[in-house]
Design a protein that fits this description.
Layout lengths: L2 H40 L47 E6 L9 H9 L5 E4 L10 H8 L10 E2 L13 H7 L11 E5 L2 E5 L15 H12 L5 E5 L17 H9 L4 E4 L5 E4 L15 E5 L16 E5 L4 E7 L3 E8 L6 E6 L2
Parallel strand pairs: 1-2, 2-3, 5-6, 6-7, 7-9
Antiparallel strand pairs: 1-11, 4-5, 8-9, 8-10, 11-12, 12-13
Helix pairs in contact: 3-4, 5-6
């Protein structure tokens, strides 16, 4: 073979080798690129520890309730952690002193209830002026009446301005007197909820020896295994409002404190007020006392405070609204929702 042919063959082999190497490198680069693109399309791999949306601002309208945990009741839930099992959490929303045809208040507060899940409560004086069948038909039914099927009602003194509260009983029917009396109880989620009639002169008294008092003692005994207990009635034992303290319901407090109840909700004074946990004598007791809320803001004429009662922690006058309680298996959250749209009082506490 001549030297020129040998040189030509060497050049040809070098060209083939160069082309093959280039093709190999190009293919590898394409594969690497494809893998990088696939990683970007599918996001972080599972187990990366990155939660979707973490680190961003809270959702618009979110509220962080202030902590208000009774001393000695154990650790509070961690911030941002669920307060209980969704399967057993329930929502209870309402107010007292509601429907007056001459005012827009009941219609305004009813709008707040439309988006509220769960049970609606009333804390008495549901239809003005006299709680008559006409008052209920004309004033209550067009507003809060749309929630009648899920309402736990309580009577007030204006309901008794119609003899024997027949307007109230006729409107709510069995819901108002499931056992033939104007007081009753039920379980909501993990909570025991008691509705009482504080028109003591109309029902034979509220003391421990009265029919209602004996029923309350038996009911508390029967529900003694329940960790969380809430009671609703109209007249507040303690109040900074126009009517002030009502000693006639003191026996209710004595029994509820002895049974380690947690929350009492009242109306009657047309304002919103929250108290620190107290004993039946009105002494602050964060370990064993009951927290009282006055929520007479359902739609009737609004009034101002006349004094500041002992252990009053929050007061709001001049605004209609409803209170929402979220009842967890071992604790609760409260929020006052005024018709102006901004939550003005909120918090959380553990049950005894």
């Amino acid at each position: 073979m001549s030297q020129s042919r040998t040189a030509g063959r060497d050049v040809a082999l070098a060209v083939v080798a160069f082309v093959a190497t280039f093709a190999l490198l190009a293919g590898g680069w394409a594969i690497l690129r494809s893998g990088a693109a696939g990683s970007g399309d599918h996001g972080p791999s599972s187990g990366s520890g990155i939660a979707a949306g973490s680190g961003g601002p809270p959702a618009s309208g979110s509220v962080t309730p202030s902590s208000s945990v009774p001393e000695g009741s154990g650790p509070a839930p961690s911030a941002g952690a669920p307060s209980g099992s969704p399967a057993t959490d329930v929502v209870l929303t309402g107010a007292g002193d509601i429907a007056d045809c001459s005012l827009s208040g009941a219609a305004d507060t009813a709008k707040l209830l439309i988006d509220q899940p769960g049970t609606i409560f009333t804390a008495g004086d549901n239809a003005y002026e006299n709680g008559s069948a006409k008052d209920y038909a004309a004033c209550y039914d067009p507003t809060w009446g749309q929630f009648k099927g899920r309402t736990m009602p309580a009577p007030g003194n204006h309901d008794y301005q119609t003899a024997h509260a027949t307007g109230y009983l006729g409107y709510f029917g069995k819901a108002a007197a499931p056992d033939g009396t104007t007081w009753y109880s039920t379980d909501l989620g993990a909570w025991h909820v008691i509705v009482l009639d504080s028109d003591c002169a109309e029902v034979g008294g509220c003391d421990a020896g009265s029919a209602e008092g004996r029923w309350l003692a038996a009911d508390l005994q029967a529900s003694a295994g329940t960790r969380c207990t809430l009671a609703i009635w109209h007249h507040p034992r303690f109040s900074s409002g126009e009517h002030g303290d009502d000693i006639a319901v003191g026996p209710f407090w004595e029994q509820l404190v002895a049974a380690h109840a947690d929350v009492i909700v009242n109306g009657h004074d047309h304002d919103y007020e929250r108290f620190a946990p107290q004993d039946a004598a009105g002494r602050e007791d964060r370990k064993g006392g009951v927290r009282e809320f006055v929520v007479g803001t359902g739609g009737a004429v609004l009034r101002t405070f006349t004094a500041q009662a002992a252990n009053s922690e929050f007061r709001l006058a001049g605004e209609w609204g409803v209170m929402r309680l979220t009842l967890h298996p071992a604790n609760y959250d409260w929020e006052f929702l005024p018709t102006s749209g901004q939550i003005t009082d909120s918090g959380s506490a553990l049950c005894h």
